[in-house]
Structures are given as C-alpha cells and as structure tokens.
Amino acid sequence: MSDDVQVTKVKRELSPRDSLKSALSLAYASLAPVEKIERDIEHTQQAVYEHVLQKERLRAFLIGLAVVAVIVYIFFSNFFAAVIVGVIAGAIGVKITDSRFDVHKTLPRYQNNDVAVKQGLEKIQTLQQKHDGLIANAGYQRAVDFVPTKYRHSADVSWLFTYLDDGRADTLKEAINIYEQELHNWRMEQMQQQIIDTTQQAALDAEAARIAAQNAEVNSAAAMYNSFWR
User: Fold this and answer.
1) Are 207 and 126 within one domain?
2) Is the pLDDT of residue 124 over 90?
C-alpha cells in the first residue's frame, strides 16, 4: 500500500467530531497569541495613563502649594501657616485633577517630552502593528472563521473543545448550546448566591439592631435603678 493511500485512509477514518476538535485546537492556537498582545497593549496603556496622572497630580500639588503659600506668607508673614495652608491647597488641587483628568487631552503635553510616556507609546504602536498583522493573516482568518464571532475568544473555544472531547457534544452547534446553558446556570447560581448573601446580611443587621435596642433598654433600666437608690 502506497503512502498516498495510507494518508487517504487516515483522513477517511477521522470522525467529524475529531475533525472539529482539530479545528478548534487550531482556532485556540490562533486566538491565544492575539489575545495576549491585546492584554499587553491594555497593560501598557494603563501604565502610561497612570504615569501621566501621577505627573499631573504632582504638578497640581506643587502649584497649589507654591501659589497659596506665597500669598499667605505675604499677607501674614507666618512661614508655618503658609506651609500648612499651602499643603491643604495642594491636596485640593490633586482632588480637582483626579475629578477632571482626561488622558486624551493631557497626553500630548508629555508624549514628546517624557521618556517613559514616549517609550510606552512606541511599545503600544509596535504591539498594535503586530496584532493587526496577525489578524490580517489569511491563515488566522481560515483558522477562526468557522467559529461564530461571539465565541472567538480562547476561553470560549477551550470550553467548546472540552464538550466535544468528553463526548457531551458531536457538533459545534451542540457544543455552543451546552456552553450557553452552563453560562445561564452559572449566572442563575450567582444571582441566587447574591440573594442569599443579601438575606443573611439583612438578618445579621436586624439581629444587631435587636441586640443594640435590648442593650439600650438594659442600660436605661440600670440608670434608673442607680438614680433611684442615690
């Protein structure tokens, strides 16, 4: 028997479920690196935003401290009071900065002058290019196209594979139905647990209020008793 005939026989012996498992394995292997890059981009963006926010907080604090401290010192000639009031003003400036901070408006001020921000933005650009290159690849598209868009995440694909692997499903549709049912069951369990927790907390609060009222009555009676015998 030739090698071509043997390969053909193996292909024919591969069941539809096994073929689907292989396809899902390939989809998982294609999705996972893309998702890792997306997480790296998000993490780097957060680091850049946090760095800019810290710089803005420090700037607001120093401006508030300097301006108010100088004004107080000019009017009252009291260095101690000037520093204390200046620190309070700086703290208020930080609070205002937190409430009004808009990274998209603030970022241009730092992107060319701050080394950490510049490096972070360059890293994000490099990661984004890598990400776009992966998802534009024809092999990636072929690997994930058969999976409905809603389930094109490595975690979802992993669960779909599991249902096929343990024999609970034979087709992609069956695997998706099982997955949706289990997600629904999980959400219901979470809601029930929330209700139980809320009920228990309400019972604890009621018991605490009852004990507090009881203690208040005892204390009141004791006070009356003491005042009577004085």
Assistant:
1) no
2) yes
Read off the pTM.
Answer: 0.71
Identify whether residues 96 and 206 lie together within a single domain: no
35 contacts 60 by C-beta, under 8 angstroms: no
Q: Does residue 162 fall inside a structural domain?
A: no
List phi, psi (to 5°) of 131. -60, -50
- C-alpha 121/C-alpha 41 separation (Å) is 10
For 30, counting Cβ atoms within 10 Å of its Cβ (0-12 exposed, 13-18 middle, 19+ buried), the class is buried
Distance CA 36, CA 49 (A): 20
Task: Give the residue from 169, 157, 177 showing the smallest Cα distance to 24.
Answer: 157
- The pLDDT, as a whole number, for residue 171 is 95
Q: Which amino acid is at 125?
A: Q
Torsion of CA 14, 17, 20, 22, to 10 degrees: -50
